[in-house]
Amino acid sequence: MAVDSETGPLREVILHRPGREMERLTPTNKDDYLFDEVVWLERAQHEHDAFAATLRDQGVEVHLLEDLLCETMAVPEARKHVLDGVVGERLQGPLAVDAVDNLFSRLDPATLTRHLIAGITKRELLEHVEEPASVVVRSTGLDELLLPPLPNHLFTRDPSVDLRRPQRPRHAPAGPDARDAALRGDLPLAPPVRRRVRASVERRRRRRTREHRGR
Question: Global pTM?
């Protein structure tokens, strides 16, 4: 996908349907994520679905970011690349890194994708692993987040600008922004990983084309 015109017909677009990450927004943390108000998720999903349907009615091929990420997480090299940018001592603490990394490494692609976008609380982590001997984890409340959500996935154009190929970040990302960029593919992947990810997306495109012709 590439954008080389501000006025030409739109053929393909990547959207993100708002999900559980929006439920992580609260009146006390919304400012940290640059939201003016807490989002009404059901209404946001309804409006998103209507917008996506309008695009499809106009012949635009709509790719959902969550679907693309889920397929990408089925590629071992791509999964490792993303997790290397998501799990770290600064966020989870040095004694919890291995537990979180091992958990994320064995999750199925769909479950991993949900946590990468919506974050994970201590309670959710302890459903899968024993509590690590980590000051960071033990000082965190059960319903507090060990991996922050990415509600700004809703605005899929914000973190990057498309200059044909490859995409480049608008700025050097850090913290959650770095994870945001890594999930979108804005950070450079090694060539073998790029080839496998692109092949996965191409298989999905061909499958959807066959399904469309069969209607």
Answer: 0.71
